[in-house]
Design brief:
The structure holds three protein chains of three kinds. Chain A is mainly alpha-helical. Chain A has three helices and no strands. In chain A, α1 packs antiparallel against α2 (about 35-60) and α2 (about 35-60) runs antiparallel to α3. Chain A is elongated and about 50 Å long. Chain C folds into two domains: about 1-90; about 125-160. Chain C contains seven helices and no strands. Chain C starts with a helix and ends in a 5-residue tail after the last helix. Classes of the chains: A mainly alpha, B mainly alpha, C mainly alpha. The interface between B and C is large, with 54 and 37 residues.
Chain lengths: ~110, ~475, ~160
């Protein structure tokens, strides 16, 4: 069953994970909608999950990789919920979710 | 993780769950949080020597135990200060959050596995977002959102490097990693790549120079007890402590500085932060913002020493971490007192506070002199260690730059002193009075620690730093 | 091989579609699709428990959270036009990045992947549950901490208005 993770596939999986990382970071740099920024963040973390599962396959240690993934998924859910709540609060306070138009703390 | 370390996590967590039920009560949560954190401080001091046996790699146990002491010291002082300074109807939530963040930080420093480190980093981050945006103000929500995005990118990078570590070493714990290091001596390239990516993540979390944009916003927009906690300990634990661990591993991999490319690169980031923070602090008009830039600068000192990773530099980094926790927390407490007394922290809006608030001003002066590295305060010794270590290792230019930045630190604090505390009292602070004992006691305790650690430095050296230097050699 | 290729290519396409979608709600749906594909990778890689969690939490719960947030905010659409202009360049940028990574990062990471040690220190006979309960106790404790922190955060931020 582990034929899915030959060494060539491992490199390809990491390549895909890096591509997803790039998509996420591009979104976070370019988008002007806080929710879309959060979606970009989710895509980067999905890339990390793909990397982690390939790592488990490559190291022949799939049970540990599964354990890490399960914990990571639940941590991720809490983080996303907190992020969305912060966004909703910002929207209630200022009426928009454009990161460049928030109250204007100087950088 | 050791059993004794689990106490530092479980007990605050249980206390937090209790606190959360007394949301509307004013005194009960504050009293509970203070008792728990003070007991934790005592426990961490008494168990310091017991924990030294369990070492995953050289010096890690001393580092963890020492960091646990600093965490509980700052958290208990902040809880005491907040008991008087935090005016909210939701004190149960506030103190519960303080307890959970303390538990999270204790988890970070006691973790023996990079994935555990990640989980606890997220605990600390979630609590930080909530504490920064605790009051319903637009500015603090924005500070929290900026922190959220940068910190989450850093977490993703960290996870990516954890997965690479798993490919290479077959596991994520320090134990597996050190075994792998011993097994593959002589070919450090793969581990340098992995730990380099990790170092990047921790530099973002620490708010070093190119990644600093969230720190001034977050520190300025949070309330003073929270700023003291964030600047004093949270960013140290989530960023600099983890960076120290990575740098120690890097120096083990590369046998010292001679061929340590990642360590060299991190040193340049540290140097850039020192200079950038010190220069920007000169320009600031707001007390808390100036303190935030000062924090970036001091963080640079710790980073440069940690990346150098000679025993002397490591001891300097550890002691500077302790000193920074005390003096920066004190300065933020002073800022909180000033804010409460006058309603503002703008430097130009007042002068002559010394006459009206002599004790706060005195304690703040001690902290500023310690930050600038003036003898005999404790900050002098740690900066001396760091600069001496740089000089010893042959980085003369960096040592000179660090010394120069220390003079810059003195310059901006003198400017602050002249503008805010010295001189004739301005009209708008006519009826300002010194705050009560609750505001002053934490300031005095920290001022006492700064002076005592400076004067009795040999005691600190013998008991805390020399075991550290010994295991590193 | 072909199944693997289908799944991971689908993941890249789904993430592109998610960030380039005009409406936030569509983006959330593409994100859910991405999660389903990732769950497929997990099932195929013999990691069924992680796949179940991915399906139920990421594809289910997080999508619901995104959808409800998008409907609460409801004004994300007004920026769509300006955004579409920036995101039109994303596939091209991705292509350039991909070619660069393929030629540069490949050689850098090759020693790392070649040195991969199968079964190094792996408690291979333990089941997932055993590993979580016996070896990953600190992580579980941390998970408990983060749940408490999350509940407190939700209560603090959504609970009350101004109280200064």
């Amino acid at each position: 069953m582990n034929s899915l993770f030959t060494p060539e596939n491992l490199q390809f999986n990491y390549f895909v994970a890096l591509m997803m990382f790039f998509i996420g970071v591009y979104t976070m740099a370019a988008s002007r909608n806080l929710i879309r920024l959060l979606i970009g963040l989710e895509i980067t973390s999905k890339g990390c999950m793909l990397a982690l599962i390939s790592a488990g396959g490559a190291a022949g240690n799939m049970p540990t990789a599964q354990a890490l993934l399960i914990i990571m998924i639940s941590v991720e859910a809490v983080v996303v919920a907190v992020g969305l709540i912060l966004i909703i609060r910002a929207f209630r306070q200022q009426g928009n979710i454009d990161p460049t138009k928030l109250s204007g703390l100087k950088g | 993780m050791l059993m004794s370390a689990a106490f530092f996590i479980v007990i605050p967590l249980a206390a937090a769950a209790v606190c959360a039920f007394f949301n509307k009560k004013q005194t009960a949560p504050a009293v509970l949080a203070n008792i728990v954190l003070a007991c934790g401080l005592l426990l961490s001091l008494t168990t310091f020597s017991d924990n030294l046996g369990q070492d995953w790699f050289y010096g890690q146990a001393v580092l963890s135990s020492f960091m646990t002491i600093i965490i509980y010291l700052v958290s208990s002082a902040v809880a005491f200060f907040a008991a008087f300074a935090a005016s909210t109807k939701r004190r149960g939530s506030y103190f519960a959050m303080l307890l959970v963040i303390t538990a999270g930080m204790a988890g970070v420093v006691n973790a023996a596995d990079f994935f555990t480190l990640y989980v606890y980093l997220e605990v600390v981050s979630v609590c930080s977002y909530a504490l920064i945006s605790f009051y319903n103000r637009p500015r603090s929500t924005e500070g929290a959102i900026r922190y959220f995005y940068l910190s989450s990118i850093a977490s993703a990078i960290l996870l990516f490097s954890i997965s690479l570590l798993m490919v290479y070493a077959g596991g994520t714990s320090y134990e597996v990693l050190t075994a792998k290091i011993l097994a593959t001596q002589g070919s450090p390239a793969p581990l340098n790549i992995i730990l380099g990516i990790m170092a990047l993540a921790f530099m973002i979390k620490a708010g070093l120079f190119p990644f600093h944009s969230w720190t001034p916003d977050a520190y300025e927009s949070a309330t003073s007890p929270v700023s003291a906690l964030l600047a004093g300990i949270v960013t140290k634990v989530v960023g600099t402590y983890a960076l120290m661990v990575v740098c120690m591993l890097l120096s083990i991999i590369n046998f010292g500085i001679a061929n340590n490319p990642v360590g060299r690169a991190v040193m340049w980031f540290g140097l850039a932060s020192i200079i950038f923070g010190a220069l920007n602090a000169q320009e600031q008009k707001d007390f808390k913002r100036m303190l935030a830039y000062s924090s970036i600068s001091q963080m640079g000192y710790i980073t440069i020493a940690a990346a150098l990773a000679t025993p002397l530099a490591m001891a300097g980094a550890l002691f500077h971490m302790f000193n920074h926790a005390t003096f920066k927390a004190l300065l933020f407490f002073a800022a909180g007192s000033v804010k409460r007394a006058t309603g503002s922290t703008e430097i130009d809006s007042m002068s002559g506070l010394q006459a009206k608030m002599p004790y706060t001003a005195g304690a703040a002066t001690v902290a500023m002199l310690s930050t600038a590295g003036v003898p005999p305060f404790s900050g002098f010794w740690s900066k001396l260690f760091i600069i001496a270590a740089l000089w010893q290792a042959g980085f003369y230019g960096m040592a000179a730059a660090a010394l120069f930045a220390s003079v810059l630190t003195l310059a901006y604090f003198l400017k602050l002193q002249r503008g805010m505390f010295f001189g004739k009292p301005s009209d708008n602070i006519k009826d300002v009075r010194e705050r009560g004992a609750g505001f002053l006691i934490p300031c005095f305790v920290f001022a006492f620690i700064i002076i005592a650690a400076g004067l009795y430095f040999p005691f600190i050296y013998d008991n805390f730093l020399s075991p550290f230097i010994r295991v590193l050699q | 091989m072909s199944l693997h290729l289908f799944l991971v290519t689908g993941m890249v396409i789904c993430s592109l579609a998610a960030v380039m979608a005009k409406r936030t709600i569509h983006a959330a749906i593409f994100l859910a699709l991405l999660s389903i594909l990732l769950a497929g990778v997990m099932f195929a890689a013999n990691a069924p428990w992680a796949g179940v969690f991915e399906l139920s939490v990421c594809a289910g719960l997080i999508t619901v959270l995104f959808a409800s947030a998008a409907s609460m905010v409801g004004r994300g659409e007004s920026y769509a036009k300006r955004e579409a202009k920036i995101f039109r360049w994303l596939p091209l940028a991705l292509l350039v990045f991909g070619i660069m990574v393929w030629w540069t990062a490949g050689p850098i990471f090759a020693p790392l992947f070649n040195a991969a040690a199968p079964n190094a220190g792996a408690p291979a006979l333990m089941s997932v549950g055993d590993i979580i309960w016996k070896l990953r106790m600190p992580d579980l404790l941390g998970q408990l901490c983060i749940f408490v922190a999350g509940v407190l955060t939700v209560r603090t931020i959504l609970g009350e208005g101004k109280d200064e």
